[in-house]
Structures are given as structure tokens and as C-alpha cells.
Amino acid sequence: MNQEEVNYQDILEYIKEKIKSCQEIDKEIKEDCYHHNAPYEKMSSIIRYGILSNQEKANLFSEKISEQVRKILLDDYHVNGLDEISLALVGLEDVRSDRNIYNPFVLNLVDILISSQISAYRNSTNYENEFLASTRISNKNFKAFDIRILKYISSLEELSFKEKLSRNNLKMLVKYYNQLKEMIIVLRTINLEVPIREMSYETTKLNQEKLYEYPTITLK
Q1: Sequence-separated (6 or more) residues with CB below 8 Å from residue 107
Q2: Is pLDDT at 12 greater than 50 in this prediction?
Q3: Is the dihedral of CA 180, 186, 187, 192 positive or negative?
Q4: Smallest Cα–Cα separation from 115: which of 36, 171, 197?
Q5: Do 197 and 144 meet the contact criterion of CB atoms below 8 Å apart?
Q6: What pLDDT was estimated at residue 73?
Q7: Residue 211: domain span
Q8: Strand-pair category, 142-147 with 196-198
Q9: What DSSP string runs through 107-128?
């Protein structure tokens, strides 16, 4: 894979330009979908194996869950615990205004849209719009991967204007961009067709073939 070194002064504009060049207007997904947030760094594994519970991840990757972590996961307010997967639905009409609502539209996480046909039940212990799935969510149930990198860049530009932008902020952006490209590589490798949508300001999807051809980047 080609790699390009970019000056830190240019990195915000560079990544913004690359993402914008791959944007194509897309239609809204009409089906109601569950939402599940995941870090960019976890997405390659999720694309390959689906979304796993904590226990399933430990079993698959031969990882032992420590007693300390086990106690945290089994706490009454850690509702997904060892064996369940936390999901959210947006736009519910029966949510109470005095309860917490989970917002899946997070700038530094990937928002995985999942078919509403999977089996899940509502649990409002922590969030009024939270649902739990009791079994692994297959990658065949993924409807889209939504990202908001352009808004994330905008937030960094605001920091730069206030002279509060650090090199670590830029390193994190580069990491997200490269991991986004890795997502495309894995999708191609396992022959899975799931749109990656850039949803910062409008409903657009990324031309994956075009983004695939761009080099990964390092910060000079």
C-alpha cells in the first residue's frame, strides 16, 4: 500500500479534500435501524466477525476476562454485561424527557447501522432508547457504516483558531483516516458490500474504490 508523508500544517485540509473528493449524494435508509458505536480501531475486526458480546470476544480471541473486569461487567448498571450487546434506536416517540437518551452520532466513533430484523429487547436502565441483543450480530445485518470525519475536522479547526490544537489531535485524525482505509480493505477482502456514509452535513456515501486508491498517510 502506498504511503504519503504530509506536513502537520497541511493535514486538516489534506484529509478534508480526500474525503470530499469521494463523496456522492446518497438516499436515506428508510428502514428503522439499530445503532451501535465502535472505535475506528475495532472496525476491521467487527467487519470480519460481526459484533460480539464481551464473552464471545474473549472466547474467539482466547482472552481471559479478569475478575476485576468481570465484576464491572456484571454490575447492575452495566446492562450489556458479559453476554449482551448494547444498541440504540433514535426517534422513538415514547421516550421520557427526564431520562437519558443515547446519542449515537459521535464524531470520533463509527456509527454502525444494523437491520431492525435482528432480535433485541428494550432495557432502559441507563438510556431510554437502549436495546440489548443476546447473540452475535452477523456482518450480514449491517446496513451502513456512518462516519463524521468532516465535522471532526471542523472541531479541530476551531481548536486551531483558538491556538489549542495539539500534534496529538492531528495524530488521532491521521489514525482515523488510515483506519477508514483499512475498513475498505477488509470489506474488499471478505467481499462484503456495506456503504460507508459521511454524514457530517448531509447524507452522502463514500466512493470506496476511489478512497482505496489514495495512499495511507503519516504525519511529517
Answers
A1: 148, 151, 152, 155
A2: yes
A3: negative
A4: 36
A5: yes
A6: 44
A7: 3-219
A8: parallel
A9: TTSEEEEEETTS--EE--SS-T
Alpha carbons 180 and 108: distance in angstroms, whole number? 12
**Global pTM value:** 0.90
Amino acid at 158: E
- Amino acid of residue 212: Y
How large is the average pLDDT for residues 45-60? Answer: 79
Q: Are the C-beta atoms of residues 216 and 3 closer than 8 Å to each other?
A: yes
219 with 167: CB under 8 angstroms?
A: yes
Please tell me the total count of domains within the chain. Answer: 1
Greater confidence, 122 or 30?
122
The amino acid occupying position 148 is R
**Do the Cβ atoms of 21 and 206 come closer than 8 Å?**
no
Instruction: Look up cell 456514509; give the residue.
Output: 197
Strand order in the sheet with 204-206: 23-25, 204-206, 196-198, 142-147, 110-115, 33-38, 85-88, 130-133, 121-122
Helix/strand/coil for 150: helix
Q: pLDDT for 73-126, tens place per residue?
A: 445 544 565 678 999 999 898 888 788 999 999 999 999 999 999 999 998 888
